[in-house]
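Suppose a colleague, Dr. K., hands you the sequence of a protein chain of 742 amino acids and asks what its three-dimensional shape might be. Before reaching for any lab equipment, you can write down a predicted structure in token form. Begin with the sequence itself:
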Amino acid sequence: MISHDHTRGRRQCDITSGCGSFYTAHSNVCPSCGASEAFSSFIPFNPSDWVYDIECYPNIFTAAFRHVNTGVRTFFEISEWQNDVVPLIEFLHALKTTSCRLIGYYNVGYDYPLLHFIIENYNEELMYEDIYTESSRIISTPWSNRFDNVVWGSDVHIHQIDLFKIHHFDNKSRRTSLKMLEFNMRMDSVEDLPFKPGSILNYSESRQLIEYNWHDVDATELFYFQSLHMIEFREHLSTKHNRNFLNHSDKKIGTDLFVAALEENEPGSCYTMEGGRYVKVNGRKKLRQTIRHQIVLSDIIFPYINFKEPEFQRVKDWLMRQTIINFDDEYLNIKGIFKDLTANVDGLKYKFGSGGIHASVESSIICSDDDYVIVDWDVGGYYPEVGGANKMYPSHLSGQFCVVNESLKQERKQYKKGTPLNLSIKLSRNGAYGDSNNKYSPLYDPQYTMAITINGQLLLCLLAQYLNDIPDLQIIQVNTDGMTVKCPRTSVKRMNSICAWWEKYTCLELESVIYNRMFIRDVNNYIGEYEGGGVKRKGAYAHETPLENCDTQEVLWHKNHSALVVPKAAEAALLHGQCIRDFITNHDDIYDFMLRTKVGNSDRLELDQHKGFGVIGLQRITRYYVSCSGGTLTKISPPANGVKVGVWKRANKLTDTYYNSVIEELNRPTNHSHFDDLDTNGLRWDARINTKNRSKYEIRETSINSGWLVTPCNNIDTANRDDINFEYYIHESEKLVMPLRG
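The predicted structure, expressed as tokens, is then:
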């Protein structure tokens, strides 16, 4: 079991003598500015907060709790060896009566519903079998129906804070397990579930499960410390608006604030009202939305956008001829309409997409000098600004949408950048745009989304068109909300005049910064060195994590934190001229060499140790480093989508209806004994539905870090720096540097 020696509390660096940042109390200096702890204040954790985690198997249920302010631990077991149901209920009752909060990870979706079941069904005869049955029911609920298990509002006995929801990990593209966070938080030990779910454990195994339970509490508590600034932000908003934002993601906070402002200005604008009361469906207010079955793009493109550049005009003309039509669903799918839509202007390829426009030079190092300056222009909050400037709003709403949007914009100016109120307004305006394409939102109108997305891209093309008129000006990048240019210093005044004209013509405001140098692999992967100091890193060059800066936008918690020594070495080489080999071989942070695996629930991870030592199975999320000794890593995967091994492969571009009809035909009671080659379902190959080469689904083997040996390191104490194969990390870093140097 892992034990962390945390002084129970935080320090805040003095605002006058330091920087005002928060940091862990056991640190002697502020990690942000280096000020001594003497120039700080000790701040205890919220005395109401308890971190917890539960485990449940057929013959054992465990629940572990730790008080974050004092470190006091309490534990309960309901199993064939022990029954703590009475003390558990007494403890939960004490938490309730003292208004304590339980902090967990996915606890709103699983842990608390199971505790709630125990509370609601409590009697001294409640057994582990009953708890496991309920646990299985919760786990087997399809993800799309996950809210069926949530305990809502006043029915909750003990306040819950769910770190999983706060960080928006319930979004499919951000889904992150606690095990992944253990790697990203650099815990001493990364531990996966020790036994297969549903296993009946013996006594020795049950003690191992208890250790694992406490390990998960350690991990949850550590992530709680990393999330305190987000929790305190939500507490501030909850107090100001007199509603509970504690388990809201940033996006949901933004949307809810915008919707609340609309409803306050015009009740019934977002939700259906009858007789002065909101209509409810299944206990929830009935949404007002604009459902569309088609969008005629010529109806939404701004008439004042016209081009003299033939390529941009060609793109506009093509868009004007398009109609988005939906045949399959009630909700219109706007993804994919820009597929392969590009324009080539002055040697730069512009790619249009549902997420925005992108263009970039590639494999280049570009510098400001005596003759040229690199200037980055962008519009802050571009998409909400485009909508506001053009008085646009979802069709089922009214002009009050624009009134609220503008009111929030002006209100935000009253608050210092970085303060909770400033951030909340930024979130509300961005959230309103994003939710216009969310079919579960009262702001839903995909035509509003498309109008802003398309016109936003065309307006940037309009700016690019006129900037290209400046002799020797080079457009370096264009992305979503702005562009970066290399301008002759003799033409800066003309560039500024063009940007000022564009601002007046579009009613949008540009902001600018100057780069000394840019190191660009492509539009999504680059380093920008600001004039006067500071660095912007994107994609493969990003290495700042939330452990270093809680406000970072680089390597976020749901991203892969593997081998960070690679981008660090690349930056040292590009910006400071350091030798990659020297940087890596002298780098002393062992965690920066660590990588991790991520394999699916149905996959296996194996390490072939070679030299007669055999193959061993590893946990699905394994921390490792590339080594001189060790073995080779392989992911073993069954056929996708639950298909059995040995079944004939399905041909491409078949509808499910057609495929299943042929399968039904092949399954009819006939004598197949004269066929020599049947698949594992007993079916013969059929040219109508199977691949021409008569291939069958097989077990798939995927090599991880192919060509290199690795050593698992789930316990950091087993790391051997002398065994690190530096050549791998040098090779990976050189791939980020050498193509740019030509």
